[in-house]
Design brief:
CATH class of the largest domain: Alpha Beta
Number of domains: 3
Mean pLDDT: 89
Number of strands: 13
Distance between the termini: 50 Å
Shape: elongated
Number of helices: 11
CATH architecture of the largest domain: 3-Layer(aba) Sandwich
Strand order of the largest sheet: 3-4-2-1-7-8-9
CATH topology of the largest domain: Rossmann fold
Length: 333
């Protein structure tokens, strides 16, 4: 039994600024924990704005996390915009590795790294947000003996993220914001019997995020080869099933939940179809130009053939545009 500091990791997305402020305001000044936060931000970043806003609600020092800085209890660390925040045993790392499920910073990466390094001393908190970032990371926290808390979806402004965790696993607590501070303080006040070992797959995935890119052999150990390719880099994807979540990872480090892979395929397909339209329009225009030139030379038959082919391309263009204009009907489940 030890009294080492806890690691509180918090993930939020859409609608998350006010809940973050409310939660941070509930922490005691002498809390025996360090707090790490990932809020999905624009790439331009509102990190300083967020830090200053949170600081108005808490006496705990609030900082933008810096690479290789030591972890101090009683501090709040925010992930910088467009960088992953990784928690090690005694320090934090800031990396520009590949996005996970579109996001950098990624909640999953923060949660998973903390679980691998601090195991039963981790408290994971999933707040309001869209899509499913954080669900896989919360499973890692649970596997390593940590505590999983989600905001009550009925209270969350955007309930997708809390619901994705609840659909994937049995959490320890579903709580309203007003109750979370007391709940977390009670957990921290409970003596922990240490000794839980992080599962190899959690350690492996945490290591991949830390190294930015992994070897193919590292990724192969995490799952089986799928029939899909990575939407971002085109590499092979390995499929992994973990409790209630199926995910896919390439050896570069891109990772997708199954719904996110579906969304990314939709985007890539739409992009490919618009490229096809552009190329066909260029081809049609060139055929019409060649037709005009041959018409001027008196080559009527050749000119007519060019017009026929240009008209065929116009028909193809209209068909593809019809698909694009109703793309959601074709692609959404």
């Amino acid at each position: 039994m030890t009294n080492r500091p806890f690691i509180i990791v918090v993930g939020a997305s859409a609608g998350g600024i006010s809940p973050l402020c409310e939660l941070m305001a509930q922490f005691e000044p002498d809390i025996n924990a360090a707090v790490f936060v990932v809020l999905h931000l624009s790439n331009k970043g509102i990190g300083t704005f967020l830090k200053d806003k949170i600081q108005r609600y808490t006496s705990l020092p609030c900082k933008i996390a810096k690479n290789e800085s030591a972890i101090e209890k009683g501090h709040i660390y925010l992930a910088p915009a467009d960088f992953h925040l990784i928690v090690k045993e005694n320090q934090m790392l800031i990396t520009s590795g590949p996005p996970e499920s579109r996001w950098r910073p990624s909640i999953d990466i923060l949660f998973r790294s903390a679980a691998a390094a601090h195991r039963e001393y981790v408290i994971g908190v999933e707040l309001t947000g869209l899509l499913d970032d954080g669900a896989a990371g919360m499973i890692a926290i649970h596997k390593c003996g940590g505590t999983a808390i989600v905001q009550d979806p009925d209270e969350a402004e955007y309930p997708d993220m809390p619901l994705s965790v609840l659909q994937a696993m049995q959490v320890d607590h579903v709580a309203r914001l007003a109750e979370m501070g007391k709940l977390i303080n009670n957990i921290i006040g409970t003596k922990v019997i240490a000794g839980i070992k992080a599962p190899p797959e959690v350690m492996a995935e945490a290591g991949i995020a830390e190294r930015t890119a992994s070897r193919i052999t590292d990724t192969m150990k995490l799952g089986t080869t799928s029939v899909y390719n990575c939407p971002d880099c085109g590499g092979s994807l390995w499929e992994r099933k973990d409790e209630g979540i199926t995910s896919y990872r390439c050896f570069i480090g891109h990772r997708y939940s199954e719904p996110e892979l579906h969304r990314q395929q939709n985007q890539k397909l739409e992009q490919a179809l618009w490229i096809a339209v552009r190329m066909m329009e260029e081809k049609r225009n060139l055929l019409n130009k060649l037709s005009e030139q041959d018409q001027a030379r008196g080559l009527v038959k050749i000119s007519s053939d060019y017009v026929t082919r240009a008209n065929e391309f116009e028909e193809y263009i209209q068909v593809i545009k019809q698909v694009l204009y109703s793309l959601n009907d074709y692609l959404e489940p």
